[in-house]
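Many introductory courses stop at the sequence. We go one step further.
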Amino acid sequence: MSEQSRASGSSRKSSNRSSRPSSSRPASRPGSSSGRPSSRPGSSSRNSNADRRPSRSLESRRNDSAQSESSGSLNKTPESRTSFSRSNDRPARNSDRPTRNSDRPTRNSDRPARSNDRGNDRGNDRGPRSGQRPQFNRDGARRPVDENRRVRKFAEPPIPEEVTGKELEKKDAFALQSLAQENGEMVAKHLVALEMSLESDPEKAYWHGQSAVFRAGRVAIVREKAGIAALRFGKYEIAIKELRAAQRISGSPSVIPYLAQCELALGDPRKTLEIAGSVDPKLLTPEQRVELRIAAAGARTKLGQHDAAVVTLTCSELSQSDPIWSKKLRTAYRDALIAADRASEARAFEEKYPQSFVD
């Protein structure tokens, strides 16, 4: 029994061995999930190329189909193409409809042109575009417009032969350099003649100033000197206009003393004091300070403040001698002493400066 059992067991083992597959494993196929690389060189590249070939053939098929469709559409006859157009499904747009303007007259056929309603051509009747309104005579006719709007309404005063214009101060002559040479020379001569006749003949000085303003009205020194000449001649309104213009052009406080004198001459002493207090005397020249003190003292006198007028005129300039303003200042101081009932002091002052009170 033991031998038979052993023989049957060995036969079973041999049959089991024959039924098992061989130990040698097949090579990995393309696309398998085993993850092991193949043992042959270049197998991976061939597999990747094999994977891409179907996609290329698909793209080529698509391109071929598109080309065939386009070539087929180009080969179609015009009749076949127009059969799908929308225009053949409906009639022409204007075939059954009359034209819009067929039953209506033209726009301008029943009324005259616009320019005929007004008589004259409007474009040619406007005249110069200078902002000036057209002027008409009593009969309705249009006056001729003069292109030169600035017309001198007075004759220029004669200039003395000895005046050359070079007598003008350097700072004043420098301000005239913006003018033309010939015009600047004439303005300089008028200013020199104005200064020469300012105290002796105020009227002549006034007309010299107006002539200079006509030639150079945008120069500050010209307007200032013309305003001073108008003040001396008694043309206070014109003087204020010229002085204000000079102040606007230059911004200098040099005209303030003369503006204060104009307000005093027009009968407004409080305005005079207000103007006199609006400037620092240190910014003025000695002559301008003297003119400002005289204006302020005159305002105090008109207000009945006689002692204050004397105090206003008491300054260091009283002891200084100047051919332009010394006599004027000393005369005003003596008059203020007399108005304040201080006649003895007035006589003593006259005896101290007799040359200032000789006519």
